[in-house]
Design a protein that fits this description.
The complex is a heterodimer of chains A (147) and B (940).
Chain A: E1 6-10, H1 14-26, E2 32-36, H2 39-47, E3 63-66, H3 75-84, E4 93-97, H4 102-110, E5 115-118, H5 123-140
Parallel strand pairs in A: 1-2, 1-3, 3-4, 4-5
Helix pairs in contact in A: 1-5, 2-3
Chain B: H1 4-30, H2 39-46, H3 52-65, H4 71-79, H5 83-97, H6 102-109, H7 114-146, H8 153-156, H9 158-174, H10 185-213, H11 216-226, H12 241-258, H13 260-268, H14 275-291, H15 294-303, H16 314-321, H17 325-365, H18 376-397, H19 404-416, H20 418-427, H21 433-458, H22 466-469, H23 490-512, H24 517-527, E1 546-547, H25 548-560, H26 565-578, E2 586-587, H27 589-607, H28 609-619, H29 624-643, H30 646-651, H31 654-743, H32 750-781, E3 787-790, H33 791-805, E4 811-815, E5 820-823, H34 825-842, E6 849-858, E7 861-868, H35 900-910, E8 915-920, E9 924-930
Parallel strand pairs in B: 4-6
Antiparallel strand pairs in B: 1-2, 3-5, 6-7, 7-9, 8-9
Helix pairs in contact in B: 1-9, 1-10, 2-10, 2-14, 3-15, 3-17, 4-12, 4-14, 6-7, 7-9, 7-17, 7-18, 7-19, 7-21, 9-17, 9-18, 10-15, 10-16, 10-17, 11-15, 12-13, 12-19, 12-23, 13-17, 15-16, 16-17, 17-18, 19-23, 21-23, 25-26, 26-27, 27-28, 29-31, 31-32, 32-35, 33-34, 34-35
The chains are: A alpha/beta (147), B mainly alpha (940).
Amino acid sequence: MKEQKTILLIEDNPDDEMLALRALKKSHIGNQVVVARDGVEALDYLFGTGAHEGRDLSKMPQLILLDLKLPRVDGLEVLRRIREDKRTRLLPVAVLTSSNEDRDIVESYRLGANSYIRKPVDFNQFSESVSQLGLYWLVMNEPPPKL
Amino acid sequence: MFSPLFIVAVFVSYMGVLFLVALWTERRAAAGRSPVDNGVVYALSLAVYCTSWTFYGSVGKAATSGMLFLTVYLGPTLGAVLWWVILRRMVRLKTKYRLSSIADLISARYDKSQRLAALATVIALVGIMPYIALQLKSVITTFGIIAAPSGTWLYRNADLVVLTAMVAFTIVFGVRRLAPAERHEGMIMALAVECLVKLATFLAVGIFVTWHMYDGPADLFGQLADSPYQQITALGSDPSGYPLWCTYLLLSTSAILFLPRQFHVSVVENVDERHIRTAMWLFPLYLFVINIFIIPITAGGLLSGMGKNAADTFVLELPLRHGSPLLVMLVFIGGVSAATGMIMISAMTLSTMATNHLLLPAVSVLPRLSFLSRHLLGCRWAFVCGILLAGYWFEQTVGKALMLVNIGMISFAAVLQFAPAILGALFWQRGSKAGALMGLSAGAGTWFYTLLIPSFYRSGHLAGTLLERGPFGLALLNPERLFGLGILDPLSHAVFWTLLLNTGCYVLGSLLFSQSDEEQQLARAFCGILGATGKTVHAVAQERYIPMAKKRREIETLLCRYFDSKAVATATKACVATCRLSGKRRISITELVELHGEVEKFLAGAIGCATARVAMKRGTVFSDRESRSLSSAYGKILADMRLSPDEVMARIDYYKDREQLLTRHWRELEQRVRERDHQIEKRKKAEGDVRKMNEELEERVTRRTAQLETANRELDAFAYSVSHDLRSPLRAIDGFSLALLEDYQNKLDTEGKDYLLRVRKGSQRMGQLIDDILKLSRLTRGQMHFEPVDLSRMAREVAGELTEAAPSRRADFEIAPSVCVTGDPQLLRVAMENLLGNAWKFTSRKPAAKIAFGTQKEGITTRYFIRDNGAGFDMAYADKLFGAFQRLHGANEFSGTGIGLATVQRVIHRHGGHIWAESAVDYGTTFYFTLGTSATGSAP
């Protein structure tokens, strides 16, 4: 069986989560989507700690969609941890957030984000963005080899 | 011929008569009708110059050297023309400084130097000693000639008798009282009488010889022409005659002024300087008269067959041989007159000098001798004895070997040593103490070596070959041929070297060693003595705070060292009265200084100015306050002097002038400093207040800044959360509305779908608004980066974009070229986009849209404008134009959020400029803006 490529969606807002999933579905991206509702949960998932104790860490998401504004550990911190750990260092991370503040954008790229998408208010535009994002990172982009 | 007793009796009687004359004179003087106060007496008293040396010696000199004797009188005669210049100065100085002797004069000029006074005294003592010896010799010799040889005690001890008599007369006439600077009217009168007597007797001898022994001058000179003695009327046969003539002239010219006794009679005893004028013609006349018969007497003596070597006694011997006892006695009296006059004055002045300049300084060094200062008069008497004894010793030792005139010349040469220092004192301001000391020492030393020492060798009292081969065989140092100078006679030789070395050292020393301040002051006072006006009265109003009683006690204590208590009381009272301070209990500092000056003057009269100065310095004490007020009074006096007449002006040299200016300036400055201090005090207080206010203000500013920063941070956080949190719900609204539309299409009717579309439109517009607000807020927060910006190019680009976005529209862009400014390109771009975008938008309904960008000059400011011919607006709403979310047109008319112009205004404000608009409905709008100085552009 072809290995399932998962997407890790890190999003605290259930509306946004739902809309993001809807946009993915609309774009016919059928990959498994793991949702983490805050930074801690996301890190637990990635490093097999906490609630995700014992998870098979050989399975890493193909793409991480990261919101910046998160409870407990915020998005930038999550990004920093991902880039610090050699297991997750090479994972593609697309920042998907409402903010278009310069400092957020600059900081995200500095910490090693692969892409920065601002969520538009218009859902048509939003789903267009998500669709292209999925297409690019899951289909067109060649992922790094497994370590 | 006469019995010794008779001679003594006549002599004493004669002196007694003189003494009576003196007493009478003093009484008259005390009554205010001084017979001495006239030029004739003054001129006669100057004739003390003619001593027994003249009386007997001139004939002796004429017998050996011809007319050379005349130079001794030609010198003073010629020199008399200078008296008005030189003598008058010295008289003025005497009056001003109460000078008592020539040593006093020298020391007074050169820093009141005690060393100099002592040196001058020693020179005078040693130098005059031969001269006194000469007088004693003449008296003793003549006594021996006219006394009939007998075995009486009186005859055998004639020397002693003469010596004692001289001491007695000197004391009786000259040293009865203490203050030598006071005039001795009696003595001067006696002296004048003596001078008349010696002139008369000398003339008598002349007449006796010319008309009694011979038949008048024709006979006498006729016989002389036939005799081998004709050379006495010649200028001298000696080859060294000519330099000797000059030397004699020089020596006698200086001697008449600088011999201590001449100084005494001509300066110290001068009553009125106008008498100098009388003396200037009368004294030369006297010399002329007394010299008339010298050649006849000499000729008479020689023709009588008396040898040249006995010529010194021709004056006495001729009457003696030709039997005229009365005339002999008269001549003896004349000779004695000449001798006693000289001895009296010389011994008196020398004793004064010795006590004041040798004894008193010694006393101040050796406290054991201090009892002497209470017996000054006794000391003077002792000195008189000592001086005459020394003269006698010299006469016994050397005098017998030399002729009278030669002895006198040794003295003259000694006195010449005073000339450079004194003339320098009077005429050369730079002459300094060091120079005077060096000059006097050098001159005196040379004199001693080249004249005095050889005279001892010649008399045989020193044996050796010094005169032939020089000391230790060094011919160069031969005292009479110094450095090989052998062409001059010993006297000219000595005069040449002493004068050269003395003057040389004096000038050199003066140039090398500078004067002290006080010395400079004295130098100016001395050199300017003729220009001096009377005492300047400085009416300086000063506080009288010095207790008189204390100062008076101080002065009395000081005077008690030298005078008995009665004299002290009298003197103190006199000084106080002179200063007009009698009865005052407290005095001011100037009055105190005047009083001190008066006391010092009194003291100087008694003990010489150098010693008096030292005594005053030691005896008086200025308190701190007194010193301070003294210096301030000094400053005031200087300031006053500046206002006094030209004469005073002339005396104030540049430095003094500057000093007083500075003093005044200093005082003004002090006043100003006080005022300034006051101001500063006030300003300080004000400053303190201001500082306090500033501090409060700063504190407030800090507080406000902190508040502002907090507010800014909060605003930042707010904007941040707006961008995140406000948009999320909008997205949800839009997203789920769309989901409704898509997923429940069938369940919704057209109306429901329309509502949902409106919901979506609203939320999307809301999103746009939020984005615009964020953009606006970001404009105000970001850093600005100034660089040159070409606004024209920017305008063309924007226009191009606008045209491109709506190719169907037609608009005429008119953009002025090369409008360049300095500013933030991004912000300016936003502004230009908004302004041009507005113009574009509001001209959309015009068939011929015109949009222009350009500049206008108004004064020094440039304003930029963007003009359109679009819809325009009512100027009544102009004030609302730049408010955020303010729209002057309905959304259905023209789209927009109402943020654009607010954004533009903020950009312009951030550049330090202004923006305003002029508009008319349907005619279009013009936006004007300026940019601040830092952003002002230039059109190349």
